[in-house]
Amino acid sequence: MALTTTVTHVPHAFPRRRRRAPASSTLVTTSLPVPPATLDRVLSDLEANPRLLTPSLLSPLLAALPLHPSPRRRLAALRSLLPASILRRNPDLALRLLHLHASLGLLAYAHHIFDHLLPAGTRLDRAFPWNCLVAGYAHVGRHEDALALYLQMDEEGAPRDGFTFASALRACAGARSVDLGRAVHRDAVRAGFASDDVAVCDALVDMYARCGDLEMARQLFDAMSQRDAVSWNVMLAGCLGHGLSPQAMEIWRMMLGEGHKPDSAALSMMLSLSSMYYDNGKQGLEIHAWVIRHGLEQKLSLANALIAMYSRKNKLGQAVSVFESMTERDLASWNAIISAHYQDFGVLMLFRRMVDSGVRPDQTTFAIVLSACENLGLVEGGTRLFSEMENKHRIQPTLEHCTSVVNMLGKAGMVNKAYEFSSKRTRLSREPTVWRALLHASSVHGNIRVGEMAAKRLFDMEPNNVQNFVSLMKMYKKTGRLEEAEKVKKMVRDKGH
Q1: CB environment 144-157: b (16+ within 10 A), e (fewer)
Q2: Which domain of life, per UniProt (predicted)?
Q3: Which residues does residue 106 pair with via DSSP β-bridges, in sequence order?
Q4: CA-based Rg of the chain, rounded to a whole angstrom?
Q5: How crowded is residue 299: how many other Cβ atoms within 10 Å of its Cβ?
Q6: Most CB atoms closer than 10 Å: which of 139, 292, 478, 480?
Q7: Tens of pLDDT along 38-69?
Q8: Among residues of the chain, what percentage have pLDDT more than 70?
């Protein structure tokens, strides 16, 4: 993998996840952060008189910025007022500003501070500024840049700590580079962080699991002298991510047997496993009971996972019971309960209830509802919903949405309308899935004209797909056109099938 330290602006914020602060930080906030409204007034006053900005004022402003509803916008305002001389004279404030930019995903600005405003001694003596950038790039998916900085630390002799290794390992996992991961592992062993630092051990297990080396991941997991919630979760996720459900169940039983209390992430993973592999539903019911006993039934992620589990098991009553008991619902909650109504004629009413509650549907919502309309034969409601998706919600239809409409119309015998719908959308003309749906509907309902046009398109796009020729033959035979059927049969023989 080619590594480069060249960076550009990345306008993405960190995903919200459990992480510890860079370990080498010795920064201390000396005053309480100011409220957002006060911050706005202070910035407004500073715009009128920038000379009022002093190091003693900058410190509480930096503490207040992460708590503001629009931190990036306020940070940009502060940055425009901030003289570089303050940062050069106050390295700790420069470090805090660097960390703030990195934590908000503003890596180009963070890297500029790192390159131009930090004293050389600070860069060489402390891991903290490096950690901010390595972690920042890893979290926004810039894995190669994160690893380039990690390697640069070694070249420049900068100190590395547990946070450095954990961040570099996350970058290796994201890049799916087990070779670089092994190199970082060796560095962590030499530095003494690969056995006693739980966060580094967690990152090692996660890296090997995500890179496909489950044997090494399990070996490291078993060797850990102490484990936290992340340790169990990454091992569970590694097993489930590679379809190793028996091993996931073994980890789950081991966790409970050792007296570890699973968190919502672990419970959600096990509910997903239960819905896929345990058809009798016993495992899912046991987890649901555990959730209730521990007072976690109102945890949003868990409630959503329970609805999804009952939905996959076609237990609509239980899914509805969980949904109706929720005190808080998000888009995932509504998508899950709508999916549970896949075979229920109330699916459109449920969709209307969602919209009326103020939740905005997304592409997934419409894919679920349109698929349900296709399954239930709700042609009028389905076509109206598709129009609403395009015109009211301004959501660009995907191939899945369009195929559902074609199938919906085709199953109802409205083959000409299905063909008209497809012909109006240029991008669909290159999609075999749509034309196969049209050919199938034409065969079922005996629409020779559309069937022949669909078959011609498919023969051009998929000349070696025998199933398309078989579908056309069936249509001809069904409509009594035996001579045409024989011609298609000969075409198949000529192709060597």
Answers
A1: bbbbbbbeebeeee
A2: Eukaryota
A3: 11
A4: 29
A5: 19
A6: 139
A7: 888 888 888 888 888 889 888 888 888 888 88
A8: 91
